[in-house]
Amino acid sequence: MFNIEDANKKSKEAVDTALKTYSDTTKGFQAIAAEATEYSKKSFQDAVTHFETLAGVKSFEAAFELQTNYVKAYFEGFVSETTKLSEMYADLAKSAYKPYEAPIAAAVVKTAKSAPSATPAAA
After folding, report:
1. Sequence-distant (≥ 6) Cβ neighbours of residue 39 within 8 angstroms
2. Domain of 88?
3. Half-sphere exposure in the Cβ direction for 118 (13 Å, CA)
4. Do the domain assignments include residue 60?
5. Is residue 49 part of a domain?
6. Number of domains within the chain
């Protein structure tokens, strides 16, 4: 039999879960945006500093060495930052899914119990 109090309780729980997930997801995206902004600022400043230094170099060999070191450091920093951002995105996805984990598992169990077992058709 349909119980209005149970339905209201479940509805309130669903709304509370959705709002909490939305809030946590928003905070996660803000953290990712802040991290990306900081990396962009640092990367730009490093490039400006590099080109100022490069402009003062007197020999081709020194310029080549300076450029090689810059590219190597830039690539290492880029890989590090990309790894950090991908971990932040993975953590965000996990935290967004977490509130729904138990209800989905319960629904799967309930559905599995109520579903008739499939029998192969006689050939």
Report:
1. 81
2. 38-97
3. 2
4. yes
5. yes
6. 1
Provide the CB-side half-sphere exposure for 55 (13 A, CA). 6
In a domain, 18, yes or no: no
Please answer whether residues 42 and 99 qualify as being in contact, where contact means their C-beta atoms are separated by less than 8 angstroms: no
pTM to 2 decimals? 0.72
Mean local confidence (pLDDT), 20-35: 93
110 belongs to a structural domain: no
Distance CA 18, CA 100 (A): 9
What would the pLDDT profile of 47-67 be if each residue is shown by its tens digit? 999 999 999 999 999 999 999
User: Residue 118 and residue 123: Cα distance in Å, rounded?
Assistant: 15
Q: What is the pLDDT of residues 52-109, one digit of tens each?
A: 999 999 999 999 999 999 999 999 999 999 999 999 999 999 988 888 788 788 888 8
Residue 117 has pLDDT above 70, yes or no: no
Per DSSP, 59 falls in state S
CB 84 within 8 A of CB 35: yes
Q: How far apart are CA 95 and CA 60, in angstroms?
A: 52
